[in-house]
Amino acid sequence: MSEINVVPYIDVMLVLLVIFMATAPILTQGVEVNLPQKPSDPLSNDQDDPFIVSVRSDGAIFINVGMRNMEKEANRVTIFSLEDQALRIIAARPDIPVFLRADADLTYAEVIEIMTVLQKSGAESVGLITAPPDV
To answer: Which residue range forms the structural domain that includes residue 121?
Structure first.
């Protein structure tokens, strides 16, 4: 008999398919932010792990350090603990670039409040992250 039995291979393939289907939603974590669409220069990937503060439309604040960690689940903080967390991070690395990813539906006052907290923590400048416009 010179035939190959493919039934075990099909079973393995179906098990792998189920595993990938179950883990795919878990891999797409991160903070969902509806960024304003404006033309700007893209962030370079060679920057040394910037400090990124993300703010959702409901006002929830998340912090993350590093471009490689952007897709990972960020740490949720309050406006009161943001200053303490940012102070520790900026004190450890005074030259760290600080960026703010704010939802487009936030008011100007809410964005300025976050920027003020970051500047009180020692950030010399705060960059704003936007999404590229749809062409």
So the answer is: 51-128
CB within 8 A of 63, min separation 6: which ones?
Answer: 51, 52, 53, 54, 74, 75, 77, 82, 85, 86, 89
Q: What is the mean pLDDT of residues 89-104?
A: 89
Tokens standing for 64?
Answer: 């993350």
Three-state secondary structure call for residue 109:
helix
Number of domains composing the chain:
1
What's the predicted TM-score (pTM) here? 0.64
Please check whether residue 109 lies inside any domain of the structure.
yes
Contact 102, 128 (CB under 8 A): yes
Asked if residue 79 belongs to a domain, the reply is yes
Q: Residue 15 pLDDT more than 80?
A: yes
Contact 54, 97 (CB under 8 A): no
> Is 10 within a domain?
no
Report the CATH number at residue 121: 3.30.420.270
